[in-house]
Specification:
- By secondary structure, this protein is an alpha+beta fold.
- Among the domains are: 110 residues, Efflux pump adaptor protein, beta barrel domain (Elongation Factor Tu (Ef-tu), domain 3, Beta Barrel), CATH 2.40.30; 76 residues, Helix Hairpins.
- Helix content is 34%, strand content 27%.
- The chain is built from 3 helices and 14 strands.
- α2 runs antiparallel to α3.
- The longest helix is centred in the middle third of the chain and has 36 residues.
Length: 285
């Protein structure tokens, strides 16, 4: 064969092979989409005290693994112990008054039966007894509330997780409702994968996905697609800012929007999951 023709044939074959490979890659990209724009996420529990006071002990350290029910910190209980004692004394007073009112009612009832007193005295005794009962109930409620506040001076972990970014020490004065610690829920990790809106019709709930960490592409692990977000934040103000904010990668080019896809991890990751880890995700049908 003519060398010139051989060169042309080889060039044509190379072009055809490149076109076939490009078409195959495009078909794979559209029918089984993948993205390198993914992050590990988890729920973060903001731990706050329900009462105010100075912290007297923090038996944990930063980045420590925590079990549900573990003591996180304790507030000085002195004020709340005094409040319990005060309400206990008040309850005893109201109970004594209730007993006295009950005895008076019993006397007035007997006197009324023998027509020694009139109906008004009996009704007054009944009213006094009812008021005494109400005072006792109110004092009991105050005691229950004081005991609750005393119990709130010890703050326990609500879930299994990891304490992170702890920046406090004993002696710190905390206020009721003030979030003091961040507790990463160990049972809530998932992967947030951002797919273009043109790819979403190929992303099916219940489908499998292959997840890889940066630098560990040879150690993929599996996940299951749980859901696709129903909206993202629109900066022109037409949507509320509670929706996820997904920025465009190039400002001056009109690009398809990207929507978060929630993926539950089912395989064993090569390293422990941490919030913010960057991952790549490929769908598997």
């Amino acid at each position: 064969m003519n060398p010139q023709k051989t060169k042309h044939v080889l060039t044509l074959v190379a072009v055809l092979l490149a076109a076939a490979a490009s078409f195959g890659m495009y078909e794979r990209y559209t029918s089984k989409p993948w993205t390198r724009d993914g992050q590990v996420r988890a729920n973060v529990v903001g731990v706050a005290s329900r009462v105010a006071g100075p912290i007297i002990q923090i038996p944990i350290r930063d980045n420590q693994s925590i079990k549900k029910g573990d003591l996180l910190f304790e507030i000085d209980p002195s004020t709340y112990i005094a409040a319990v004692k005060k309400t206990q004394a008040k309850l005893l007073q109201t109970q004594a008054a209730e007993i006295q009112a009950s005895q008076e009612l019993a006397r007035q009832t007997e006197l009324f039966k023998t027509r020694v007193t009139d109906l008004r005295d009996l009704q007054n005794a009944q009213d006094s007894f009812a008021a005494a009962q109400a005072n006792t109930a109110a004092a009991q409620a105050e005691l229950d509330y004081a005991n609750l506040n005393l119990g709130y001076t010890k703050i326990f972990a609500p879930v299994d997780g990891y304490i992170t970014n702890m920046n406090t020490s004993p002696g710190t004065y905390v206020y009721a409702g003030q979030q003091l610690l961040a507790l990463v829920d160990a049972n809530s990790f998932w992967v947030a994968a951002y797919f273009k809106e043109t790819q979403l019709h190929h992303v099916k709930e219940g489908g499998k996905a292959k997840v890889t960490f940066i630098g560990r592409e040879d150690q993929p692990f599996e996940g299951v697609i749980e859901s696709v977000a129903w909206g993202i934040f629109d900066p022109d103000g037409s949507t509320v800012d509670l929706l996820p904010k997904v920025s465009q990668t190039v400002d001056w080019v009109r690009l398809p929007n990207r929507f978060p896809v929630r993926i539950r991890v089912t395989g064993k990751p090569p390293v422990p999951l941490r919030i913010g880890q960057t991952v790549s995700i490929a769908t598997i049908h």
